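subagent[fold] <- orchestrator: predict structure for attached chain, return tokens only, no commentary.
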Amino acid sequence: MKSYRRLALAAAAATMSVLALSACGSSSAGDAATMGSTGIPDDWLRDEVEAVLVAKGQPSNASDPSLVQQTLGRMITMELVDQVSEQEGVVVTEGQIDEFLANYESQLGGRDAVEQQLIQQNIAPPMIRSIVRLQMQAQALGIALDPRGSAEEQGQAVFDAVVAKSDELDTTVNPRYGTWDANQLQVGPIPNDLSSPPTLG
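subagent[fold] -> orchestrator:
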């Protein structure tokens, strides 16, 4: 099943969030990012960053601008993948996530081993189920978008669909965190006219 490789790829390239962002209401000026009418509040971003820092044994208020940007990119991409999944009728159930996790834990030797592997990818334990959910969504989307394609072609079809959704929703990041690069699905450098690094709170 190549579970770890796929999870690591999801964490590093697609990225995602433990929060169900689709439940978020309309965006506001205090949001870290906006995707159409959906916003990612600053405190959601802060909570995720703090969870990663604590999992890595660092102070929860430590300054780590690159972690902030990586985490925000993960949260944005999660929302975009959710929206593409809904558009394509792709549904991942809690039971499917449970089954995947049970197999993965069996392969690596237990829950602790899984957590340690993913902490190295800046994925805190509370985020694991969402990482699994993203991977399963991506697999199902690949089949839906390119049923006869190779794994690589299906992966590209998913990436292209998510990029298109980002453009459709005019995804924007609050400048104090950086700039959204839709073609890479990640948060890039802070605009040159802002001198201070991204901070939370």
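orchestrator: received. Logging for downstream: The chain has one domain: 3-21+31-179. Residues 1-27 have pLDDT under 50 and may be disordered.
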